[in-house]
Amino acid sequence: xxxxxxxxxxxxxxxxxxxxxxxxxxxxxxxxxxxxxxxxxxxxxxxxxxxxxxxxxxxxxxxxxxxxxxxxxxxxxxxxxxxxxxxxxxxxxxxxxxxxxxxxxxxxxxxxxxxxxxxxxxxxxxxxxxxxxxxxxxxxxxxxxxxxxxxxxxxxxxxxxxxxxxxxxxxxxxxxx
Length: 177
Description:
With 177 residues, the protein is of the alpha+beta class.
């Protein structure tokens, strides 16, 4: 056959070449896929470990999150009709204005916006006061127990030579029915 005509040196080169080609195929189609799969599993285990650490941190905060939820849930859930809730909202704004000595010159409730799973109550108001009174009023709105939010705010002077400021404020409140 073919091997009988080859010299000893040529036979060794043939076997060496066949061994290298076989090694290359074994590496390419067996070892390399195993290594790539192993590295992929390593990355997934690392990502899973990070997710586990994050989940454990959240689980450790469960009690605090539950207490915060219970504290704020009552102020976000509707306890009456839309008119009653709007009345509470307006009463809260007027009470905050009185406590900060701000004079409300105009207040206009806007239509209630129904969005997905909640209702957004919005009031547009005009207020007057000096800088301390207005800043206290804004602070009180932002820190209200009813979780009020100032969506829009504009500020200007009432007139030349006065210390009074006139502001237009858009205040909103979100409730879950």
